[in-house]
């Protein structure tokens, strides 16, 4: 009798395989997926940055390490070859690698149709010959004439790319457009065409503009995702390149104890817990707990009228007036000179 293999659930492995990265946190090794975004969101710039980083082993966007570098096969269907060269050379310069040494192979054919048997075979033969670690196709709309809204038609095309990934053990980045004015949608749901595109990806990258800020979001089948990574298009030299924007961390929130000390420093007389609670905008229990902490540290004192700071002359919260002139008489006037 021919049966399916089964195993008791309690005997299954307790840990699965760890995610292997092509580009750490951005693209899993041997993953297929979408690099998506609205028009003019720098999708091609990011695709070329990925190409340079994988080919050189340098961090993508100067921030994300590349554990597994290797040859890249690129088909830029929309930009002219001189523009592609200029951009790649500029990114290589920013990454501080010799452009001529980069193993990036560019398909120069005027067209590539993934919905025709002849071009599928030519692409398969090229991959077999070059053995790239990464295939970049930019953009999807120039690679076929099928109806992108028809799930059965687009699934057949994506199935071919999945077959290439499994047969040649390479990663595939497919650049694709999102709908215009799609900021209210989840990034994956904003892709043009069938939802098959969103479900197909093992790793997906989405570029969006929020007002003038360009942001990157990541999505992985087997790893945590990240949202709204700020990017900008910089020109550190003669060419443009994407770069991650440094985010200034918010200052740590003021502690309750420090807030209470700051309020007490404004009063020369003891203040009750209720008034202190009103000035601080805190719950009574929170104020009492902080006062107990400050009392234990010897920073506040308490009597029947309330709490006040103990005078520590080196306390930065306290402002001390200028001392009285020792030559004065205490009322702001100079003492009469002593007779000799």
Describe the structure.
With 340 residues, the chain is α/β, with parallel strands linked by helices. The chain has 2 domains: 18-244, P-loop containing nucleotide triphosphate hydrolases (Rossmann fold, 3-Layer(aba) Sandwich); 256-309, Winged helix-like DNA-binding domain superfamily/Winged helix DNA-binding domain (Arc Repressor Mutant, subunit A, Orthogonal Bundle). Helix content is 28%, strand content 19%. The chain has 8 helices and 13 strands. The chain has a 9-stranded mixed sheet. A two-stranded antiparallel sheet has the order 1-2. The longest helix has 18 residues, at 151-168. It is elongated, with a radius of gyration of 33 Å. The protein starts with 20 loop residues before the first strand and ends in a 31-residue tail after the last strand. The relative contact order is 0.12. Residues 318-326 and 328-332 have low confidence and may be disordered.
């Amino acid at each position: 009798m021919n049966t399916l293999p089964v195993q008791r659930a309690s005997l299954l492995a307790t840990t699965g395989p760890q995610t292997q990265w092509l580009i750490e946190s951005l693209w899993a090794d041997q993953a297929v997926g979408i690099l998506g975004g609205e028009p003019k969101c720098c999708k091609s710039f990011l695709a070329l940055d990925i190409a340079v980083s994988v080919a050189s082993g340098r961090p993508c966007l100067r921030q994300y390490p590349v554990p597994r570098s290797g040859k890249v096969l690129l088909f830029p269907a929309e930009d002219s070859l001189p523009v592609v060269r200029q951009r790649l050379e500029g990114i290589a310069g920013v990454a501080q690698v010799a452009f001529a040494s980069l193993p990036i192979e560019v398909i120069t054919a005027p067209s590539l149709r993934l919905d025709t048997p002849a071009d599928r075979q030519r692409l398969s033969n090229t991959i077999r010959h070059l053995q790239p670690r990464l295939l970049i196709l930019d953009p999807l709309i120039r690679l076929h004439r099928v109806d992108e809204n028809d799930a059965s038609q687009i699934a057949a095309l994506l199935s071919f790319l999945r077959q290439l990934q499994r047969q040649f053990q390479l990663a595939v980045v497919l650049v694709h457009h999102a709908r215009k004015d799609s900021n209210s949608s989840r990034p994956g749901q904003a892709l043009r065409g069938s939802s098959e595109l969103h479900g197909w990806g093992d790793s997906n990258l989405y570029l969006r503009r929020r007002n003038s800020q360009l942001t990157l979001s990541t999505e992985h089948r087997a790893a945590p995702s990240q949202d709204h990574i700020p990017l900008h298009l910089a020109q550190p030299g003669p060419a443009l390149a994407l770069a991650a924007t440094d985010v200034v961390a918010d200052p740590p929130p003021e502690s309750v104890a420090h807030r209470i000390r700051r309020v007490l420093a404004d009063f020369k007389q003891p203040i009750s817990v209720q008034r202190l609670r009103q000035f601080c905008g805190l719950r009574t229990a929170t104020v009492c707990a902080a006062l107990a902490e400050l009392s234990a540290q010897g920073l506040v004192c308490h009597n029947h009228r309330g709490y006040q700071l103990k005078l520590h002359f080196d306390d930065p919260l306290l402002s001390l007036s200028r001392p009285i002139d020792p030559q004065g008489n205490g009322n702001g006037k100079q003492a009469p000179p002593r007779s000799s």
